[in-house]
Amino acid sequence: MSIIDISEVKPGSHVTLNYRLSLADGTEIVNTFADRPATLLLGVGQLSPPLENILIGLKVGHHSTFQLEPGVAFGQRNPDLIQRISLKTLRDNAVIGESFNPGDLIEFNAPDGGRYAGVLKEVNDSSALFDFNHPLAGQAVAFEVQIIGIL
């Protein structure tokens, strides 16, 4: 019989925690402190890798706030990820229906069977302009965490 060391967060851990993610100006993006804790499996994309890396090594009961410089948590904005696609491509590949409005976050089926998403910036008679950057790319954020349990 082996003993599993769950005294600290490791890659692949299931972590129950409260967390708050906010912009540098205090605008709150997500806050589990006000509702109920989240349980996340590290390494499967439920948090961005830089945010997951912050959790590695933390112990049950740890509670602090980490300030991340612009672009650290969700990457820098990449102008190559702003792309124009034809309306036909949009209609053939989008997961939602026929109605598209600027500001919509639209999911697409990827060739490998996965999905990816972009924010519709503008649409005209023949094409649509999308921003495939993460909506928080290039932003400074505060990441407050309170570790409740580790499995």
Concise synopsis of the structure shown:
The chain has helices spanning 49-55, 87-93; strands at 14-23, 28-31, 38-41, 63-68, 82-86, 105-109, 115-123, 127-131, 141-150. The protein is mainly β and 151 residues long. 15% of the residues are buried.
How would you describe what is shown here?
It is an enzyme of class 5 (isomerase). It holds the Pfam family FKBP_C. This protein is 9% helix and 38% strand. The model is unreliable at 1-5 (pLDDT under 50). β7 and β8 (127-131) form a beta hairpin. With 151 residues, it is mostly beta strands. The two termini are 17 Å apart. The protein is elongated. The protein folds into 2 domains: 14-75 and 136-150, Roll (Chitinase A, domain 3), CATH 3.10.50.40; 79-131, Thrombin, subunit H (Beta Barrel). The chain is built from 2 helices and 9 strands. The strands form 2 sheets. Strands 1, 2, 3, 4 and 9 form a 5-stranded antiparallel beta sheet that branches.
